[in-house]
Specification:
Bound molecules: adenosine-5'-triphosphate, magnesium ion
Strand content of chain B: 15-25%
Mean pLDDT of chain B: 88
Helix content of chain B: 25-40%
Radius of gyration of chain A: 20 Å
Distance between the termini of chain A: 27 Å
Number of helices of chain A: 15
CATH class of chain B: Alpha Beta
Helix content of chain A: over 70%
Low-confidence stretches of chain B: 250-257
Low-confidence stretches of chain A: 1-6
CATH topology of chain B: Rossmann fold
Strand content of chain A: under 5%
Number of helices of chain B: 11
Structural class of chain B: alpha/beta
Number of strands of chain A: 2
Structural class of chain A: mainly alpha
Largest sheet of chain B: 6 strands, mixed
CATH architecture of chain B: 3-Layer(aba) Sandwich
CATH superfamily of chain B: P-loop containing nucleotide triphosphate hydrolases
Order of helices and strands of chain B: EEEHEEHEHHHHEHEHEEHHH
Oligomer: heterodimer
Number of domains of chain A: 1
Distance between the termini of chain B: 23 Å
Chain lengths: 327, 257
């Protein structure tokens, strides 16, 4: 009677198939495409961070690109200045960003309701200013150059293909971990806060602490994405870590849907394909996003995934009826 | 269990002179209340008498204006809501407060998750207890993977009681669990209350349905404009003239019998 783990079997299977297909990409496509997919996968991690914070815990942040930047510069500093290796850079980027998010979360979530969102806009602005001006940490306006690529125990990832696989592995691990989070009591505490904070309180959930943990987990994901970005591109500029970029992550999850990590994946794919496939329309991109998001929110507020799920359920129901009818 | 058997025992929850004002409105005036393990205390009164407010004071949703709240002899007057819940004070809401984007099963599990947050209690055996409670609530037929929004209003209210029982509270505060339920569903409420008392949980029952209150309560306390106008056994309350005047409809023979 009690099958805990049967959540979204379709979506989990589809995501596994997608990951397998993706693993073949380096064999089948150009080096440029491989690079584009690697960059998109890094975006996916940031969108996954939005899934945890918004989709699971109901808290909306415009600071995710800033946290991504924190992770990137932390990793860059480790790799360039301390001589630490890729693994050290990774651990520091993830732990450092998570810690920062946790501490800030503890301050911000004292504000009720949507004031956290306001605070996150302030945070984004401050972080961008720090990246632009704090030269010892970020290289200031010049940025950070010549960051070494991924190196593990003497082996160096020099080709786009090998870098691709490293990013892919991190994405898969992150997705599996977030899947486990979804099924854990912590994940359910997030959802309780999302659905009804009064109920959450009445069930013994410390909402301030729990929301801060959600923000910290989203920070860890952004930190990982930042470390990947530093080694993949070898160059960091404050112009990557902007309010605009945070908004794009939100658009991605809105388009894909917030109900499962698959929504983050779909949204990232759609936007990446739009960006790459219609380069000539670059000037109109913002307009297309804007109109697209508005239409989607009116007609399918749960995003593509929500629409697909509703359709799937309708088909199942119709089949059931047809079966009952034929008897 | 009756009031006499409580004489040597210590009450689980005690309210001492609890007061609450909202601007000019007195929603609670010097409330005295004791709830023992395993008994059912009824809290009745006309609309706006301050019943829900009292639950919100006990759970810490509102701070008290004056007075003390003791749980197991310890003062909890200034603890935040979630800590009181961890102490063992469970509640339901007048209108169902479920996790409405989650399915039935997840709603049940979030109740039993309490054990993960609270040291010293054993997690309930969900595979055994959930079906038992669902049967008790007349919900054995529902699909566990359905979103709760698919359930009828009454079913949602019953599921909320199931969820709070899965969190193994020691005191259970029920805010009009039978309001909006049909007769058959109201019987499930009695069954769930019986389940609670068998587990030794002390229940505070707010209810407008006199039939339910008179049949399950060991003691009843009556509120009117935030003031306790009477406390006693169901029989005493039914024949108390002040109560009849204030609440039972001034000599309406229906209520007296
Ligand atoms: N948050 C609040 N702010 C201001 N006044 C409030 C608040 N909550 C309750 N009140 C007032 O306190 C009084 C008691 O309200 P309460 O909801 O406790 O009544 P009740 O006995 O539960 O009534 P009902 O049977 O209708 O549920 C009412 O006059 C109400 O207007
Ligand atoms: Mg009420």
């Amino acid at each position: 009677m009690l099958q805990k783990s049967k959540k979204n079997p379709v979506s989990a299977m589809a995501m596994t198939a997608f990951a397998l297909l993706l693993a073949l990409a380096p064999v089948a496509t150009s080096v440029y495409t491989v690079h584009v997919i690697s960059v998109a996968m890094i975006s996916y991690l940031c969108v996954l961070s939005v899934y945890v914070l918004l989709g699971l815990c109901g808290q909306n942040s415009f600071a995710q690109a800033g946290l991504w930047g924190v992770g990137a510069y932390l990793a860059g500093n480790i790799l360039l200045k301390t001589g630490g290796g890729t693994l050290t850079a990774f651990v520091v980027a993830i732990a450092g960003t998570a810690l920062l998010a946790f501490v800030l979360g503890f301050a911000f979530f004292r504000l009720k309701q949507y004031y956290f969102t306001f605070a996150s806009i302030g945070l984004m602005t401050i972080l961008n200013g720090v990246f632009m001006n704090w030269e010892p940490f970020s290289g200031g306006a010049v940025g950070m150059k010549n960051i070494p690529t991924f190196t593990f125990f003497g082996w160096q990832a020099t080709t786009e293909q090998s870098k691709f696989y490293i990013v892919l592995v991190v994405c898969i691990v992150a997705t599996v971990l977030i899947g486990l989070l979804f099924r854990s009591s912590l994940g359910r505490a997030f959802m309780a806060i999302r659905d009804n904070e009064m109920t959450a309180d009445s069930m013994g959930i410390n909402s301030l602490l729990t929301k801060s943990i959600a923000f910290a987990i989203s920070g860890a994901l952004c930190g990982a994405a930042g470390a990947l970005h530093a080694s993949l591109s070898g160059y960091l500029s404050y112009q990557s870590f902007t309010y605009n970029q945070s908004t794009i992550y939100l658009i991605m999850i809105m388009i894909g849907g917030t109900i499962s990590p698959a929504g983050a994946l779909i949204g990232t794919c759609v936007i990446t394909i739009l960006q790459e496939g219609f380069r000539s329309l670059q000037d109109y991109m913002q307009l297309i996003y804007g109109v697209g998001v508005i239409l989607l929110m009116i007609f399918q507020p749960e995003g593509i995934l929500g629409g697909g799920k509703a359709l799937y359920e309708r088909i199942c129901e119709r089949r059931k009826k047809a079966k009952a009818g034929s008897r | 269990m009756n009031a006499f058997a409580n004489a040597e025992k210590k009450p689980k929850l005690v309210l001492v002179d609890v007061c609450k004002n909202f601007g000019g409105v007195t929603a609670a005036q010097d409330i005295q209340l004791e709830i023992y393990s395993g008994e059912v205390v009824g809290l009745i009164g006309p609309n706006g008498a301050g019943k829900t407010t009292l639950i919100n004071l006990i759970t810490g949703v509102y701070p008290v204006s004056r007075g003390k709240i003791l749980f197991d002899g310890r003062e909890i007057t200034h603890q935040p809501t979630y800590k009181r819940a961890l102490e063992g004070i469970g509640r339901t809401f007048q209108h169902p407060h479920l996790l409405d984007r989650c399915d039935v099963l997840t709603n049940g599990i979030t109740g039993s998750d309490m054990a993960a947050r609270k040291r010293g209690i054993q997690k309930v055996d969900l595979a055994k207890e959930l079906p038992r409670l669902l049967a008790c609530a007349g919900l054995e037929g529902i699909n566990l993977s359905d979103p709760v929004s698919k359930l009828a209003y009454g079913q949602q209210k019953l599921l909320e009681v199931v969820r709070v029982l899965l969190s193994q509270p020691q005191i259970l505060l029920l805010d009009e669990p039978a309001a909006g339920l049909n007769n058959r569903e109201a019987e499930y409420v009695s069954a769930l209350i019986q389940y609670a008392t068998e587990k030794g949980i002390g229940v505070l029952l707010i209810e407008h349905s006199m039939e339910l209150v008179m049949s399950v309560c060991d003691r009843i306390t009556v509120l009117n404009f935030g003031t306790q106008i009477a406390t006693g056994t169901p029989e005493q309350i039914q024949s108390n003239p002040e109560v009849i005047r204030a609440y039972l409809g001034g000599g309406d023979s229906d209520a007296e019998n």
